[in-house]
Write a structure and sequence with these properties.
There is one protein chain. The chain is mostly beta strands. The protein has one domain (about 1-614): Maltoporin, Chain A. It contains 5 helices and 35 strands. It has helices at about 1-10, 45-50, 55-60, 130-135, 420-425; strands at about 25, 30-35, 40-45, 70, 80, 90-95, 100, 120-130, 140-150, 155-165, 180-190, 195-205, 220-230, 235-255, 260-280, 285-300, 305-320, 325-340, 345-365, 370-380, 385-395, 405-415, 435-445, 450-465, 465-470, 475-480, 485-500, 500-510, 525-530, 535-545, 550, 555-560, 565-575, 580-585, 605-614. The longest helix has 9 residues, at about 1-10. The radius of gyration is 24 Å and the shape is globular.
C-alpha cells in the first residue's frame, strides 16, 4: 500500500503560482520566503481553514504530512495524543501569538489543543523536526505556531457565524442537526492608531457517548478573545491580548470495564500578554511577556483538582547585517507553579528556567545557505543543558522564480521533566534528567509555477526516555530508561493548482525500530481535491490510516485494522449578499473503524454553516 501511494503522489504535477510566494517564519524565527527556508514547514492559511468548516483543529491538522493526532475522530471530549513523526505530546511545543503555552499541571505539561477554537485562528505554521535551540524544551518533533485573528482591514467589521451538525456513530440513523451547534461573533474596529478585535466562540454537542455505550456525554466549549495592536507610523509597535478558554465535557468509566457513567471534566485557561517592539535601521528588538493560569477538575470516582500559573518573558534581537547574513539572539525566562488537591493530599510545585540563545542565517548569491543556532538552558532543578542546530541547504533558481532545493539538518532537542514527574509525593523523582533527542533530516523540494513536490527523510534518536516504572505494592516511580530508541520515516508531499483545480496529497511512513509502536500507524496518506466554480467550491478528501497496535481491556497488545475515510463538502461564497454558506458530509460511506479500543468513533455526519459579514 505505501509504495503504491508514494508512486501516485510523485506522478502528480500541476499549476500553483501562489506556492512561489509563500512566506514562513517559524523555522528560523525570521520572516522569509519558503525558498530560503532550510526546514520542512507546513503553513495553513485562513483560506484553507475556512475551506474546512465543520472540522476541529485536530481533524484539520491530521490532513498534513507527518502529523497524526489520535482522538480527532472520537467524542469531542476525548484526550488527544500528538503522534507527530512518531513522537508524543511532550515532544510538541505550541505557541500562540508568539508565546509558549501549555499546562504545567498536566503530567506531560503540554498544551491541550481542545481548548482553542479553530474559528479564531488566522494562520498555523508547523515546523517538523528538532527546534529546541530556538524554542526550548519540548520542541523535539514539532513546533506548532498559531496566530489568532487580529488583523483589521476596515474601520468596522462584524462577522456572525452559525453551524449545525449531527454527531452520529457508525450504523446510527441520521441524528438531529442540533446535536452540534456552534456560534461565533467577531468584531473588529480600526481607530486612529490602534486596531481592536474581539470574538466569542461557543460550541455545544450532545450526540454521542464517550465509550461504546448508549448514554450521550455532552460537551460545552467557550472561547473569548480580545486583541489590540498599534498601527501608527514610527519605530515603536505593540500588541496585547487576553484569551480565555473554557472546556466542559462529560465522560465515562474505563476501569475495570468500559461503561456509561456520569463523570465530568472542566478545564479553564486564561492568557494575558503584551508584546512591544522597536525597529531602527537593520535592527529589531521585541519583548514578549505573558501570564497564564489554568485549572482542571475531575468529578468521578476519584475527584481531583489541578491548578497552574506560568509567567513567561522573552527578549529577542534581530539584526540584518547584509543581504547575506541575519543574526538573532535572545533571552528566555519562565517561572512555573502548579498544585493538585484530592480528598487525601494537597501538593504545590515550583521551578524556573532561564535560557540564552543565538542564531545566524547566511545566504550566498550562488544558492549556498546555512542556519546555525545554539541554546543554553539553566533549569532550577536539573541544572544546565545545551542544544544546537546545523541546517545547510542549497537552492538552485531559474529566471521564472522556480527552484530546486536540497536541505539537511542535524539538531538536538530536550524535554524537561514535568513538575509532576519531578515532585509528586507518589511517583516523582527529583533525580530525573531531561530527555534528549537528536534528529537527522534530509530533504528535497521542487517548486515552480506548475507544482511543488517535497520529499523528506528523517531519523530521530531518543535518550534518557522518562518512563513510569512499576514498583511492588502497587507503587511506581518515574525514571530515565537506559538505551537509545530510534524512529525513522519518510514524508512525500505534492501540492498543485491548475485553473479551477486545487489538489493536495501526501504520504507518510513512520517506524520505531526494534519495538512495537502503540497506536501509531506506520502508513498514513491524504488526498484532497477542490474545484472552484463560479458560484460554488466543491471539495473531496480521502484519508488512509494504516494498521497499528493498541492495548485491550486485559492490557494485551491487539492489532487494530487500517481504515479509510472520505469527506465531501461544498461552499457558496456568495450565498446571499454578504453571507457565505457551506455544507459537508464527513465519513461519507459510514466506514467502520477503531481509533482506540473501547471508545466510540464518528460515523457519517452532516454539517451546515452560515457566515454573515456586516
Amino acid at each position: 500500500m505505501r509504495y503504491l501511494i508514494a508512486v501516485l503522489l510523485c506522478m502528480s504535477i500541476a499549476h500553483a503560482q501562489e506556492l512561489l510566494d509563500e512566506v514562513v517564519v517559524s523555522d528560523s524565527r525570521i520572516s522569509k520566503p519558503r525558498k530560503n527556508s532550510g526546514k520542512s514547514v507546513v503553513r495553513i492559511t485562513a483560506k484553507e481553514i475556512n475551506q474546512h468548516k465543520g472540522l476541529s483543529l485536530a481533524q484539520l491538522l491530521n490532513q498534513y504530512a507527518g502529523i497524526y493526532i489520535l482522538g480527532a475522530q472520537q467524542h469531542p471530549g476525548q484526550n488527544l495524543s500528538y503522534f507527530i513523526r512518531g513522537g508524543n505530546n511532550r515532544q510538541v511545543l505550541v505557541r500562540i501569538d508568539g508565546v509558549v503555552v501549555g499546562d504545567p499541571s498536566l503530567i506531560e505539561s503540554e498544551f491541550d489543543l481542545r481548548l482553542i477554537a479553530i474559528d479564531q485562528i488566522e494562520t498555523i505554521e508547523i515546523v517538523k523536526g528538532a527546534s529546541s535551540s530556538l524554542y526550548g524544551s519540548g520542541a523535539a518533533t514539532a513546533v506548532i505556531n498559531i496566530t489568532t485573528k487580529k488583523e483589521v482591514d476596515q474601520k468596522t467589521k462584524l462577522s456572525l457565524s452559525q453551524e449545525w451538525g449531527t454527531q452520529n456513530t457508525q450504523d446510527q440513523k441520521a441524528g438531529r442537526l442540533s446535536e452540534v451547534q456552534k456560534q461565533v461573533v467577531q468584531l473588529q474596529q480600526k481607530t486612529g492608531k490602534v486596531d481592536l478585535s474581539a470574538s466569542i466562540h461557543r460550541l455545544i454537542s450532545d450526540g454521542m457517548s464517550s465509550v461504546i455505550g448508549t448514554e450521550a456525554d455532552p460537551v460545552k466549549k467557550e472561547n473569548i478573545q480580545f486583541n489590540a495592536s498599534s498601527h501608527y507610523a514610527g519605530s515603536w509597535a505593540w500588541t496585547a491580548f487576553l484569551h480565555r478558554d473554557t472546556f466542559d465535557a462529560n465522560y465515562d468509566s474505563t476501569y475495570p470495564s468500559f461503561a456509561d457513567a456520569d463523570y465530568s471534566f472542566l478545564s479553564k485557561q486564561q492568557r494575558v500578554g503584551f508584546v512591544p517592539s522597536y525597529s531602527h535601521g537593520k535592527s529589531n528588538v521585541q519583548l514578549q511577556t505573558s501570564w497564564l493560569d489554568a485549572t482542571r477538575s475531575y468529578a468521578d470516582a476519584y475527584p481531583i483538582t489541578y491548578a497552574a500559573a506560568q509567567f513567561t518573558t522573552e527578549l529577542t534581537w534581530r539584526y540584518r547585517t547584509s543581504d547575506r547574513l541575519t543574526l538573532l539572539s535572545g533571552m528566555f525566562y519562565q517561572d512555573t507553579r502548579s498544585e493538585f488537591k484530592d480528598s487525601n493530599l494537597a501538593e504545590n510545585y515550583t521551578h524556573d528556567n532561564l535560557a540564552f540563545f543565538a542564531s545566524a542565517n547566511w545566504q550566498h548569491p550562488k544558492g549556498y545557505s546555512v542556519q546555525l543556532s545554539a541554546r543554553q538552558t539553566a533549569h532550577s532543578e536539573f541544572g544546565s543543558h545545551q542544544t544546537f542546530t546545523i541546517n545547510p541547504f542549497y537552492v538552485r533558481s531559474s529566471s521564472s522564480g522556480a527552484y530546486h532545493k536540497f536541505f539537511a539538518s542535524w539538531a538536538t532537542s530536550f524535554i524537561a521533566p514535568s513538575q509532576y514527574k519531578l515532585f509528586s509525593a507518589w511517583y516523582g523523582n527529583t533525580d530525573l534528567k531531561p530527555e534528549e533527542n537528536q534528529t537527522l533530516e534530509l530533504g528535497f523540494e521542487q517548486v515552480s509555477d506548475q507544482h511543488r513536490i517535497t520529499v523528506v527523510g528523517f531519523q530521530r534518536e531518543e535518550d534518557n526516555f522518562i518512563d513510569f516504572i512499576p514498583l511492588p505494592n502497587f507503587g511506581g516511580q518515574y525514571q530515565n530508561r537506559l538505551g537509545v530508541t530510534k524512529v525513522r520515516g519518510v514524508e512525500v508531499e505534492v501540492n498543485w493548482q491548475r485553473a479551477k483545480w486545487d489538489i493536495n496529497a501526501h504520504y507518510t511512513f513512520t517506524e520505531k525500530l526494534n519495538q512495537t509502536s502503540l497506536r501509531i500507524p506506520k502508513d498514513t496518506a491524504n488526498l484532497g481535491i477542490r474545484y472552484s466554480a463560479t458560484n460554488a467550491h466543491w471539495g473531496l478528501h480521502w484519508r488512509y490510516i494504516g494498521s497499528r497496535f493498541d492495548l485491550n481491556q486485559s492490557f494485551n497488545q491487539e492489532k487494530v485494522s487500517a481504515y479509510q475515510l472520505i469527506d465531501a463538502r461544498v461552499s457558496f461564497p456568495d450565498f446571499i449578499k454578504k453571507t457565505t454558506a457551506s455544507f459537508s458530509v464527513t465519513n461519507l460511506f459510514d466506514a467502520k473503524y477503531t481509533e482506540i479500543i473501547g471508545y466510540t468513533t464518528l460515523g457519517r455526519n452532516i454539517s451546515i454553516s452560515l457566515n454573515c459579514t456586516l
